Amino acid sequence: MKIPEDVIEQIRSQVNIVDVVSQYVQLKQSGKNLFGLCPFHEERTPSFSVTEDKQIFHCFSCGRGGNVFKFIMEIENLSFPEAVKKVAEMEHLDVDAKYFADAAPATKESSELKQLIDLNEQAVKLYHHILMNTKIGQPALDYLHKRGMTDETIVTYQLGYAPSQRLVKPFFDQRQVDYQLLRKSGLFSEGQDGSLRDRFVDRVMYPIRNANGQTVGFSGRLLSTDSDMPKYLNSPETELFNKRKILFNLDFARPNIRSKQPALLFEGFMDVITAFQAGIKSGIASMGTSLTEQQIYDIQRITREVIVCYDGDAPGQKAIKRAIDAFKETNHQLDLKVVSIPDGMDPDEFIRNRGGDKFQALLQNAQSPIDFELNFLKKQSNLQSEDGQAAYIAAALKLVATVSSGISRDLYLNRLAEEFSIDKEVLKQQLAPMIRRTATQRPVISAPVAPAQAVNQTPRPSDKVAVAQMQLLNRMLHNHDVWLKVQGTPGFAFVDEQYQMLYLLAEGYFAKFDDYNVATFSNMITEDSLQSLLIDIEMMNLPQEPSPMEIDNDLDVIMRKAPVESELKQKQAELNQAAKIGDVDKQRQLMVDILKLEQQKRTKEQA
């Protein structure tokens, strides 16, 4: 059943696109619009815009744009009916389920991905059932309870147990799941003969979800202590699971981060889960790998505040240093801080032994990256010897030189001078050339795009005909008098097919609606290229009211000059065809025709 247009519009009209987009992108008001980093491509300067009064989004860099349904379709790879359903669910709107019964995936590729996600979701339920409701799962449940985990937390994270008896393959065989789909799921190991067997055996299972809350893989913690198998085993790299792109718990943490809590970057998922149970719910973790550029970009897209909370032992401190370096390499614009867990403990252990309140106190006293690096450097140095002290001071000055604030640099110099009883002026003399070198090496970071600048960046066609079409259609949609004037112009038609298609769709729209609303009109457009063109037209920076001369000029360009353009394109196509078949006489005649048309075009442009 097709979703009725009035139901679609009812849902759209009850939803504020800002509320939906803000769950994926950190937006900041700048003039009339809100701006953020585009979720569809990597960028350093925000060019992704949301216009609240028009209820549309638009990226001035990659060109994507549309209403709230289009945004959800793009970011979650959904079909239009699926996106309508998702938006209704996100906003807790009561819509009859019969309208979504036939919601089909957007593409064949996304259909297979959905099947793979479904396999993982079924495996989650099976592992969880074994853990919570069977005797073979009891040892794993006892292990989690000993780790301080409550049943509520176990249910929230849908933790499970993969027993020694391989049950997952028979479970799916019983349901006659396609062999190739099972191979791609990451749930099985494949023998040389092509046979599949459960990949996870005797392991506590931690489902791994993507940013949209869909299970894309697992991490299994070995329950036996006398095995030579690895303690932790992750799903292999699949079409769904790429650990370099995944941030564990991002789907749970994002609403809390949006409520102005800093993102807490942990090293492992047990740290995240224990913190969550203690009421600290903005924790995320990379998947046992060094922090990647993609992960940093995903963090920066949703927040400006990050606290790194890695283990307090020596390997954990080195990991913090690597994380700081990774953030530096991306030229991030984050308020970055670091927590050092005392007594070599990891966050999970600290929270279980000393409580969430004490951990919150650590977060309140988080230090800057430069303070951490100076302390880290000190631990690596031999301060008992004069050579060691000199080496430490030289290295410390290099770090201080990277600090952009002159006041902060001065405070660090005071600290060094006092700690080592050195004349501050001597330190200043050594620091000065380092600051100059750092300034020349420091990359220039562009300022955020302001609304006025952004509007001027709207992609606009270069030739007069395309500009006239774009401008005229904008006026027609927003001004009924212009619409009537153009409709009453004998023989009028847009030159390019895309503009003519939008015009015809607009005729259908105005047959149903009296007032123009771009977000509502967008629902009637199924082609991506037409949706993008509509948003480009909508984002044009035009005076509020058109002058009669402007409309006449646009009509003149389209109706008087455009036919020459069309004929030129036709002749060029014929020339290419004649060249392919080797018709020399035809080519000569067409070249003469093209030269005449080019002359006509120049004459009309000068008129």
From TrEMBL:
What cellular-component terms does GO give this entry?
cytoplasm; DNA-directed RNA polymerase complex; primosome complex
Q: Which GO terms describe its biological process?
A: DNA replication, synthesis of primer
Map the zinc fingers (CHC2-type) to residue ranges.
38-62
* Broad EC category: transferase
Q: Which GO terms describe its molecular function?
A: DNA binding; DNA-directed RNA polymerase activity; zinc ion binding
Report keywords, A-Z.
Answer: DNA replication, DNA-binding, DNA-directed RNA polymerase, Magnesium, Metal-binding, Nucleotidyltransferase, Primosome, Transcription, Transferase, Zinc, Zinc-finger
Per its Swiss-Prot or TrEMBL entry, what cofactor is needed?
Zn(2+)
Fetch the CDD domains from UniProt. TOPRIM_DnaG_primases (cd03364)
A Pfam family this chain is assigned to: DnaB_bind
> Mind telling me which InterPro entries this protein's record contains?
DNA_helicase_N/primase_C, DNA_primase_core_N_sf, DNA_primase_DnaB-bd, DNA_primase_DnaG, DNA_primase_Znf_CHC2, DnaG_bac, DNAG_N, DnaG_primase
User: What highest taxon heads this organism's lineage?
Assistant: Bacteria
Q: What is its EC number?
A: 2.7.7.101
Q: Which reaction does it catalyse?
A: ssDNA + n NTP = ssDNA/pppN(pN)n-1 hybrid + (n-1) diphosphate
Q: What is known of its domains?
A: Contains an N-terminal zinc-binding domain, a central core domain that contains the primase activity, and a C-terminal DnaB-binding domain.
Q: How does it assemble?
A: Monomer. Interacts with DnaB.
NCBIfam families associated with the record? dnaG
Name of the protein: DNA primase
Q: What is the lineage of its organism?
A: Bacteria, Bacillati, Bacillota, Bacilli, Lactobacillales
